[in-house]
Amino acid sequence: MPIRIPDDLPAAGILKSENIFTISESRASHQHIRPLRVLILNLMPKKIETETQLMRLLSNTPLQVDVELVRVDARASRNTPQEHLDKFYGDFDRVKKQKWDGFIITGAPLGKIPFEDVYYWDKFKEIVDWSHHNVTSTLFLCWAAQAALNHLFDIKRETRDQKLSGIYKHTTYNHHHPLVRGFDDQFWAPLSRFADFNSKTIKANSDLTIFADDSDAGVYLAASPDCRQVFISGHPEYDANTLSNEYLRDLDEGLNPDLPANYYPDDDENQIPRAKWRSHGNLLYSNWLNYCVYQVTPYDLNELK
């Protein structure tokens, strides 16, 4: 089944060129099934790139998914045309009276900024609290995962001196759980963060189940017992060249970044990097949509508590 997106969203043409099954809003309106309603709060600066990456993963299931994009407010963006934001992004206050099957909150380039100094911190906390009663399952990515852990469990911020960037091999735990069904014992995933996701700290301060981690990089995947909150400390949605673009950007800004680990062939930044995490990323999103959302969400979303 397809992912349903606005007819003229830029991602639609990109996904069509990749032979990814999408369906226009006009065509979907004539189908007599209820699609899953998934809300995306996109906090990344390059919103078109991020929304396309996420929709690529959401489309890889037999379920029809109705995606809506939302922002915290109507501030202008330096990296996304204002007309795109005004046309495709609604404000959170407009959708908060509705119920949703799934919710994705992206990362944000706020690695070393204290939470209380983030201009939308109060709004972020409001949204996290709202999601607990109005969404079947929420997926927190990277910065959003760290921020939500702080708000929900008072887990203090831990940051690294040097940015953790690259592809890391994680070990899978609790193989019997549907969220990691089909996972290999170890898998690669992209990381790009200053945050430290310490497994001992998370175990001591929350009731979350840890499903994957790396001895150097820390926890990668964790979830609440009912999977209404799922935390991913990396970026399974990243394209093959995303980390390279970030590395070159940081070089241009004089930040002296480390070369992304396990990323460039022979650690040569002049060689073209190859993605070795796509199968894991697709499986993770497919499992989340199927087992954490579709299998448990009520047909009538008004019944959601």
From TrEMBL:
Its EC number is 2.3.1.46. Pathway: Amino-acid biosynthesis; L-methionine biosynthesis via de novo pathway; O-succinyl-L-homoserine from L-homoserine: step 1/1. Substrate binds at K163, S192, R249. It comes from Psychromonas marina. Signal peptide: none annotated. It is found in: Cytoplasm. Belongs to the MetA family. Its main location: cytoplasm. Gene3D superfamilies: 3.40.50.880. It is an enzyme of class 2 (transferase). It catalyses: L-homoserine + succinyl-CoA = O-succinyl-L-homoserine + CoA. Transfers a succinyl group from succinyl-CoA to L-homoserine, forming succinyl-L-homoserine. Keywords: Acyltransferase, Amino-acid biosynthesis, Cytoplasm, Methionine biosynthesis, Transferase. This is Homoserine O-succinyltransferase. The record marks S192 as: Important for substrate specificity.
